[in-house]
């Protein structure tokens, strides 16, 4: 989604979609070249979205999916967020004061995974198979996932903001904050433990 070329606005500085966009979304991908209004992706349970800024209450009561914000957010981000992941570009270092920390923690995007992002960059950022790969395990590969989604945003929304971030990846990666719900992290760990134990249990049963 992008504004008209001759619309006379700067997308990165303008609200181009209103309030409650993606309310209750369950699947799909949404790439918005511009800023969203209030309550973006509230109760999102499975959609993937990239936006260049958002108003108050973004990701409120979110239970699944992935949201990437390539700019400023309003207050009360992630209130009641119990699942899914968000990545927020925090260039000014103020995001912790805007995020509701009752149910989430903020983490850096692990820089050692940057090598994975570069592999995806050269192997083809935009194919659906690559998207499936980076979404297969939400407990790791954050840099690869983030790079892949920003590349899709650059292509599908024609975002100059995204293109600039990709061209200066080493500078921007440390400025992203991963918003991780506490219960979601626990659930992912339990799932991985069960998956790791399954072959052992099968062997013991056989």
Which terms summarize this structure?
206 residues; alpha/beta; six-stranded mixed β-sheet; two-stranded parallel ribbon; 8 strands; 19% strand
Q: What does this entry look like structurally?
A:
With 206 residues, the chain is α/β, with parallel strands linked by helices. It has seven helices and eight strands, in the order ββββββαβαααααβα. It has a six-stranded mixed β-sheet. The mean pLDDT is 88.
Tell me what portion of residues adopts beta-strand conformation. Answer: 15-25%
Q: What sort of overall outline do the alpha carbons produce when their principal axes are compared?
A: globular
Proportion of residues in helical segments: 25-40%
In whole angstroms, the N-to-C terminal distance is 53 Å
Secondary-structure-based class equals alpha/beta
Total DSSP helices = 7
| Spatial strand arrangement across the major sheet | 2-4-5-6-8-7
Topology summary:
Blueprint: E1 15-17, E2 29-31, E3 35-36, E4 45-51, E5 63-69, E6 83-89, H1 95-98, E7 104-108, H2 114-124, H3 128-135, H4 142-157, H5 160-167, H6 169-172, E8 176-181, H7 182-205
Parallel strand pairs: 1-3, 2-4, 4-5, 5-6
Antiparallel strand pairs: 6-8, 7-8
Helix pairs in contact: 2-4, 3-4, 4-5
